[in-house]
Amino acid sequence: MRIRATVAAVTGALALSAFAVPAAQAAEPKVPADIAAASEVVHADSGRSAFAGAVEGEPYALNATFSSVKVNNGKNISVGTTNLVKVPVSFKLTHGADVDIHADDFFAGIELYRGASFEESAFFFDSNDASCTDSSATVANCKATVEIDPFALLNEDAGSWKAAGFAVAFNGENPDEPNLDKVGVAVTDPTNSFKLQRFSKLTVNASPEPVKKGKTITVTGKLSRANWDDNKYHGYTNQSVKLQFRKKNSDTYTTVKTIKSNSTGELKTTVKASVDGYFRYSFAGTTTTPAVNAAGDFVDVQ
What we know:
Elements: H1 33-42, E1 60-61, E2 64-71, E3 77-79, E4 85-95, E5 106-115, E6 121-126, E7 131-134, E8 139-148, E9 159-169, E10 184-198, E11 200-207, E12 216-227, E13 232-235, E14 240-247, E15 254-260, E16 266-272, E17 277-283, E18 292-293, E19 297-299
Parallel strand pairs: 1-10, 3-10
Antiparallel strand pairs: 2-4, 4-8, 5-6, 5-9, 7-8, 9-10, 11-12, 12-13, 12-16, 14-15, 14-17, 17-18, 17-19
């Protein structure tokens, strides 16, 4: 759940209506109740929990660690304006022989967060409860999914993110009102770093078609990216974009020239017609925006 306050963000059952957030950000990430309750416990000590200070005790250190964590198959995550992005995560969970990871009230997952550390994050998304398969009595291979809703993001969230693994054993305690002295918690932080990026689009149009050899071809296009503040696409301005060309029977593009997008993200340049082939624009990407290539536009040179 997104809390647009200076303190922190908390997943779980807190109602957004209780906080001052923009109307466009009223969406709530789809975190299952079980993992949300576990997240509440994990963050109780940091003040990021809904019941921080309202329940008794302090969790004990659970004998469990996370390793070999993979987030989105090792790739950065790009998010558009409307579609929910389901990010696969996997990890190895090593635990003590006395820890029953298959108990109904044991939960393990991955948290993706923006901030200096797990305890000091500005905002985060939790996975669902992981599905784990034992490889030995004390080691399991686990998989889960983190759902990222673009309506829960703001442009300031684009950039560097990290991941952490967390596990909670409730040991029969009521997840909504546990005695924390009887609850075990384990956190491995950080496990990964990656970029959360604003999805980009790039178009191209080369004309006229057909064209006589030696005549001028005008190549236009537009570079745009997702704006999470209003959930629309806007031109990405003043960015270097390469105009590339490949001959009709070739698989390789070569760079013809580099130009910059204008104040609305529009692209325009000219070249001389030589042989049949495809023109495209290519954007290398930035920290906040992924690389993208336009689909090639064929020009028949006569």
